[in-house]
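Q: I have 387 residues here and want to know how they pack in 3D. Can you give me a structure?
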Amino acid sequence: MTSCKSLYAPQEDSTMLECYVNQYAKGNVLDIGTGSGIQAIAAAKNKNVRSVLAADVQRGVIEYCKKCINHKKIRFLQSDLFKNIKGKFDTIIFNPPYLPQELKLKDLTIEGGKKGYEVIERFLNEANNYLKSDGIILMVFSSLTKKGKVEEFIGNNLLNFEELEKVHLFFEDIYVYLLRKNELLKKFEEDNIKNAKYLTKGNRGILFTCIYKNKKAAIKVKNIQSKAIGRIENEAKYLKKLNRYKIGPKLLTVDNDYFIDEYIDGDFIVDFLKKSNKSSIERAIKSIFSQLFTLDKLKIDKEEMHRPLKHIIVSKNKPCLIDFERAHIVNRPKNVTQFCQFIIKKRIIKILKNKGIIIDRNEIIQLAKIYKTAPSVSNLQKIINLV
């Protein structure tokens, strides 16, 4: 038989996974990281399987498999995870490299990144786009990969999991998981929300990008680990109201479980300050203060404007306030004064100074106190004039 030095020879994890491929594989199958082809062969032998596409990032592996495996159901393709994959599948099989990287020269057959789980994270962030609504994913991994992190990635991508087997071997546990799309993800697809991809997670919400009505958009759902109640509904309510004043990303649609708004592609506020010129910064800061003054007039307290590191995105020199989960009505909102606190932080003063913008910290503090007592256009303008 032809040899291949870069081939991952089947180990205990392979035979564990093979058992469940025999049991669960169905329809059109995608075998990611096929290695020796053991899972592709197991799937092809299953009477419930119509076809198998076996992919691997290493060309030598694919050449080996083409020479040594001849089955009418199996086709081989070189691909880095899903890069060259097209279509959707009933079953996706994944025996990933999952050991933490120890050497400078990576062993692609066993090492999944510096922490061991990077390849699994990449896989899970893309898998939904290639899995049919009622499809399944069969995956094996080790406790050395950090089980909690793997389950976090699974949840972030709106998948449910079932632990099919756990075996203790030497200094690690080996797990076989079966994954399915959860009901919310299926609802996205039913509502014609396409290509939902995990973006980031906050304390109360999880943010995805998606394609909605042929345009890139952002979709926000509740973080199930959060104990906060009604945050998604609250944010959608305030976005709808503030959009009338051209504040916040444009709200596109609202559902009981999520809302979709315009995707803002730009830089967070500190990154913008570091990379932009003096005039662009001055215009942006003026716009931010004007938007915050509108919030103050509406008696809406946004919260966290004293540390808006991820609450302001600047796109094409236009700042957009985002994240209104905690917005609420108060008698004396503090949006403008909180942002004053932000721009007089030592780090921000230093950044602005490098751009030729000199901030008199004490004077800003005095003007902020005056504004707090009498929040008027004239008092706001005095603050802006100092920047």
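Q: Anything worth noting?
A: The two ends are 74 Å apart (CA to CA). The chain has 13 helices and 17 strands.
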